[in-house]
């Protein structure tokens, strides 16, 4: 089903609600492995986006909408995660436009899957991070792969959403036993094993909430 940017306020709300609902749990993770500000950083980014909801809903094409999201997140200065999410959306804007003469006004699983892949690659480049380093990349890469597989397999949207959610949860869970070698957690060495990365958890939560909002499910 092709989506228009008018869906964005619902998706931003879904992301903000799940972060608020899991704030204590994630803060506990980030207090153990980081400096404890990850939830506050994300909430600041999401609040800035909520304030732009009406404007985003009225945008006519996805490339401009992604660009605005990226710039908004980038300028709300939300720690390492904020600049990485900013990078993700700015790269999405560029990839979604591609070399088309006119930017697409609708979004489908097929068009999104290829561009999300490129956007995640941009995050990895910016953060100099690969899978297995106990970061949000451990959630984002499997999600990009699941999107690509679902698009290739011609999955109906509910099946695709289910696979994306499973990939996000498995990716997030994979960070539990990893040794952190990126970001602040890397200073803690072996002590990082046994605890899920906060950024991997929040990206999983937001992806699952967005997938549910898109398929009309309530969690
Ligand atoms: P900061 O580390 O500046 O305090 P946050 O607390 O908002 O920023 O975000 C921390 C999260 O950001 C980590 O849990 C991790 O998932 C992610 N992160 C940090 N550095 C990187 C990196 N270089 N590449 C990918 N993700 C990273
Ligand atoms: Mg932090």
Topology:
Layout: H1 8-21, H2 23-33, H3 38-51, H4 53-57, H5 62-75, H6 79-97, H7 109-127, H8 137-152, H9 157-174, H10 198-214
Helix pairs in contact: 1-3, 1-10, 2-10, 3-5, 5-6, 6-7, 7-8, 8-9, 8-10, 9-10
Magnesium ion is lined by residues 30, 34-35, 37-38, 79.
Quick tags:
single chain; 219 residues; mainly alpha; 0% strand; globular; binds adenosine-5'-diphosphate; binds magnesium ion
Summarize the structure.
By secondary structure, the protein is mostly helical.
What can you see in these coordinates?
By secondary structure, the chain is mostly helical. 67% of the residues lie in helices and 0% in strands. It is built from 10 helices and no strands. The protein has helices at residues 8-21, 23-33, 38-51, 53-57, 62-75, 79-97, 109-127, 137-152, 157-174, 198-214. Helix 5 (62-75) runs antiparallel to helix 6. The mean pLDDT is 94. Bound molecules: adenosine-5'-diphosphate and magnesium ion (MG). Adenosine-5'-diphosphate is lined by residues 30, 34-35, 37-38, 41, 78-81, 84, 127, 129, 135-137, 182-184, 197-200.
How much of the polypeptide forms β-strand, as a percent range? under 5%
Q: Element order, helices and strands?
A: HHHHHHHHHH
Secondary structural class: mainly alpha
What is Rg? Answer: 16 Å
Number of helices: 10
Average pLDDT, all residues: 94
| Helical residue percent band | 55-70%
Report the span from N to C terminus. 22 Å
Oligomer: single chain
Shape: globular
Uncertain regions spanning at least 5 consecutive residues: none
Q: Describe the largest sheet.
A: none
């Amino acid at each position: 089903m092709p989506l228009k940017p008018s869906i964005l306020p619902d998706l931003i709300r879904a992301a903000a609600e799940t972060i608020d609902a899991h704030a204590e749990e994630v803060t506990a993770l980030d207090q153990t492995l980081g400096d404890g500000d990850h939830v506050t950083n994300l909430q600041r980014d999401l609040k800035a986006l909520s304030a732009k909801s009406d404007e985003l809903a009225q945008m006519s094409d996805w490339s401009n909408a992604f660009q605005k999201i990226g710039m908004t997140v980038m300028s709300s200065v939300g720690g390492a995660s904020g600049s990485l999410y900013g990078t993700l959306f700015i790269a999405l804007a560029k990839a979604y436009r591609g070399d088309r003469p006119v930017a697409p006004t609708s979004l489908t699983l097929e068009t999104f899957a290829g561009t999300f892949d490129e956007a995640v690659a941009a995050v990895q480049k910016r953060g100099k991070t690969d899978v297995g380093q106990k970061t949000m990349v451990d959630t984002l890469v499997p999600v990009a792969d699941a999107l690509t597989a679902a698009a290739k397999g011609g999955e109906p949207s509910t099946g695709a959403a289910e696979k994306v959610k499973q990939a996000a949860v498995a990716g997030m869970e994979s960070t539990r036993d990893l040794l952190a070698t990126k970001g602040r957690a890397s200073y803690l060495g072996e002590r990082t094993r046994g605890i899920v990365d906060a950024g991997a958890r929040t990206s999983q939560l937001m992806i699952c909430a967005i997938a549910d909002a898109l398929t009309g499910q309530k969690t």
